Amino acid sequence: MTSSGQRRSRYFCMEINGVFEGGGVRGIALAGAAAATLELGYSFHRAVGTSAGALVAALLMAGYDAPELEAEVAGLDWPSLLQPAPLASVPLLGKHMALLAYQGVNTTMRLEEVWSRLLLRKGVRTFGDLPEGALQVIATDLTHGAGVAFPHCLPGYGHDPETFSVARAVVMSAAVPFLFIPVPLRDRLNGEKVLFSDGAMAANYPIGVIAKDRPVFGFRLSPDGHQHVHNSIRGPYGLARAVIFSGIRARYSLPRTIEGADKEISVPVMADLDFSVTPDEARIAFARARAAVHDQLAPAVLP
C-alpha cells in the first residue's frame, strides 16, 4: 500500500456497493482492484459478481482485507484448480471424449474445495453466515435457459438460502462452459436435476442486480494488448475451446455501454491471462490493477 493510501485511509471511510465483472482468471486483477479500494478507505456494504467477479465478491463480503486478498488470490496456484474429468487425461482423444461424455473437460471439485476453505477461514459456509443481501452471484440455468441471482433465486428451486453453500453458488457462477462440467442442483420442488454454468452468459456485468442504497462502484476489466489470435478448431474440444476464449475476448473488442454505476473502475489486465498463469504473472496482474485503481480513486478521495 502506498504511503498516500495510508494517509487517506486514516481520514476517509465510505461504504459502497460493488459490481464485479466476469472474466476467468482475470479475476486476479479484480482482486487487486478491490484491494486498492479497501486501502483507500472504502468498505463494501454489498457486492454482486459474475464468474471470476463472484469469486472476488464472496471473499470481500466474507471479510478479506487487502493483504489477505493479495496472499490468497495472487498467491493461489491457479493451474491446480483445473481437475481433469474422467477420460480427459487419455492421450490424444481424452478431452474430446470427456467433452462428449460430461459436457466439460474439468470438474469444479477443486475450485469449490479451495473457495470453501477460504470462506471458512472467515467463518462463512452458507449465505446465512453473511448479512442479508450482502452478496449476490450470477449463474446461468442451462436447463431452463435463464439467468439467476443467488441466493435470491434459491427458494425457486426449493433450497433455503440460510443453509446453502456460498462456495457452491460461486462455483455455479464460475463454471466456464466446456472448460468445466456444468454444476448440478436438485430442484427440491419437483425432483428435477438442473444444470448451471457460467453467469457471464446471463449477465457478465450485473449492474442491474445491485442495490442502490449506497454509492455503486462498477469494476470492469480492460485487457491490454491486441495481438492477433488464431484458434485452431479441430474436433469438438477445439471448437469448445474456441467458443470459450472467443466469448471471453470478444466482449472487449467492441465499445461497451457504461451505465448504472456512480463510479466506473477500469481494471487493466493482460489480455492472454488464463489458467496457465504463473505465480509471477499473477502477482504482476494483481499489482498493476491495484496501482491503476489507486490512481483512479485517489483524486476523488482527496479534498
- State the helicity in percent bands: 25-40%
Cα Rg: 19 Å
Average pLDDT figure: 86
What is the overall number of helices? 10
**Main beta-sheet strand count, sense and barrel state:** 8 strands, mixed
- Topology as a string of helices (H) and strands (E): HEHEHHEHEHEEHEEEHEHEH
Distance between the termini: 20 Å
| Strand percent estimate | 15-25%
Work out the number of β strands.
11
Parts with pLDDT < 50 across at least 5 consecutive residues? 1-11
Shape: globular
Structural class: alpha/beta
Characterization of the model:
The protein is α/β, with parallel strands linked by helices and 303 residues long. The protein contains ten helices and eleven strands. Strands 1, 2, 5, 6, 8, 9, 10 and 11 form an eight-stranded mixed sheet that branches. Strands 3-4-7 form a three-stranded mixed sheet. It is globular.
State the main characteristics.
single chain; 303 residues; alpha/beta; eight-stranded mixed β-sheet; three-stranded mixed β-sheet; 10 helices; 11 strands; 38% helix; globular; disordered N terminus
In short:
This protein has 303 residues and is an alpha/beta fold. It is built from ten helices and eleven strands.
